[in-house]
Amino acid sequence: xxxxxxxxxxxxxxxxxxxxxxxLVRYLQNKDKAFxxxxxxxxxxxxxxxxxxxxKTGEWQTGIGKLMEGDLPDPIAELLEPYLAAVKELNPxxxxxxxxxxxxxxRMLFRPQxxxxxxxxxxxxxxxxxxxxxxxxxxxxxELDGWLSLGAHxxxxxxxxxxxxxxxxxxxxxxxxxxxxxxxxxxxxxTGTYCLWYPLKKGAPIKDFHERLQSFEIPKMLCAELSVRSxxxxxxxxxxxxxxxxxxxxxxxxxTLLPYLKTRLAQDRFASQRAFWLRGEEKPExx
Length: 287
Ligand code: SAM
What we know:
InterPro entries: DNA_methylase_N6_adenine_CS, RlmJ, SAM-dependent_MTases_sf. By secondary structure, this protein is α/β, with parallel strands linked by helices. The chain has ten helices and ten strands. It is globular.
């Protein structure tokens, strides 16, 4: 376990993931009934972007740093409001020194009845996360293999839930593991909303990954991808999200948000984006 998210916190991939996560949390709050967020690979929850590690890569500067420069047009400002309001709340003096990871962001958006179960396997990171939420009765942090939580923690007792699966992709077969993890979880909790993160880079088996997902009996799967540069160079060129049981408005929102993020975060002329149903009731004009 070499991966440490502090080197990547606030980068372009976090921007897409956290902007969508915030929208999914807000959507669940359309009903009064409580829900649970299960964050299977939670990280440390709060990142200091002035730390030596974050400064070393400077990745946040071409992610959240770019997005926070200047005003946003409508309706982008509205779509990003829950996400950026949390970032601003952590940085009352302006700029972005502190950046919320997924568990912190979800928690900042919660109502009193909502709950978070956060899994983190790295002992140091798990301890840091537990410290961050110490005394918070709405949050439970567990040092556990997040893949196991897809069995052990589902369905949540609230019977409403959002499951974020955001593994570090250190292993070769992580795409397959991610797809199979979803399939296993969905069998236990088919009414939950799922959000799966995956990297886009040279040689990534995206077609196989999508085909595997399409082979499952999961009827509503939306895919959102944003690449900020050509994948001919090494390293992360973009990222994707699979959203199972998305809110009915999400696809249209992505069709507004993704082109904007592409333009704002592009690092070269090969930046691209797409949002489409991987499985679902596709209308002819969709794609
Ligand atoms: N979800 C976080 C966010 O958006 O702020 C970032 C998570 S980071 C991409 C992946 C995290 O998973 C790392 O903190 C790593 O230590 C942790 N991790 C790695 N393998 C794990 C496993 N099997 N179970 C739980 N956590 C794991």
